[in-house]
Design a protein that fits this description.
globular, 11 strands, mainly beta, single chain, 7-stranded mixed β-sheet, 4-stranded antiparallel β-sheet
Length: 119
C-alpha cells in the first residue's frame, strides 16, 4: 500500500515562509495537500494531477505553490506570505483514480505536519 510521510512544519511569524514535503512510497496520479484547523473541517489546499497543479484553494492562491521533486517521489508545498489563518495540521493525500478533483476519493493519508503562524 501507499505510504505518505509529511515533514517541514513548524512555527513562523506572519509573512514568513515554510516548505512542506511529502515523501511517498509510490507517487500516484492524484496527489493533494489538505489542512485542518481545530474546530474546522478538513479542506483542500492544492491538488496535483499528473505533473502539474490543477487546483488551489482561493485562500492560498498566489501564496502557495505545489510541485514535485523530480529526483524522488516527493510532493512539495512552498508556502509564502503566511497568515495566522493558515495555521493548521497539513496532510498529504493520494488516490489511484484518474479524476483528482473529488476530495472524498482520497484514501491514502500521511500523519500530518503542524503549521503555526503567529501575528
Amino acid at each position: 500500500q501507499v505510504q505518505l510521510v509529511e515533514s517541514g512544519g513548524g512555527s513562523v511569524q506572519a509573512g514568513g515562509s515554510l516548505k512542506l514535503s511529502c515523501a511517498a512510497s509510490q507517487f500516484l496520479y492524484c496527489m493533494a495537500w489538505f489542512r485542518q484547523a481545530p474546530g474546522k473541517e478538513r479542506e483542500v489546499v492544492a491538488i496535483y494531477e499528473g505533473r502539474d497543479t490543477t487546483y488551489y484553494s482561493d485562500s492560498v492562491k498566489g501564496r502557495f505553490t505545489a510541485s514535485q521533486d523530480n529526483t524522488k517521489n516527493t510532493l512539495l508545498l512552498q508556502m509564502n506570505s503566511l497568515k495566522p489563518e493558515d495555521s493548521a495540521m497539513y496532510y498529504c493525500a493520494a488516490h489511484r483514480a484518474d479524476y483528482c478533483n473529488s476530495p472524498a476519493e482520497y484514501n491514502y493519508w500521511g500523519q500530518g505536519t503542524q503549521v503555526t503562524v503567529s501575528s
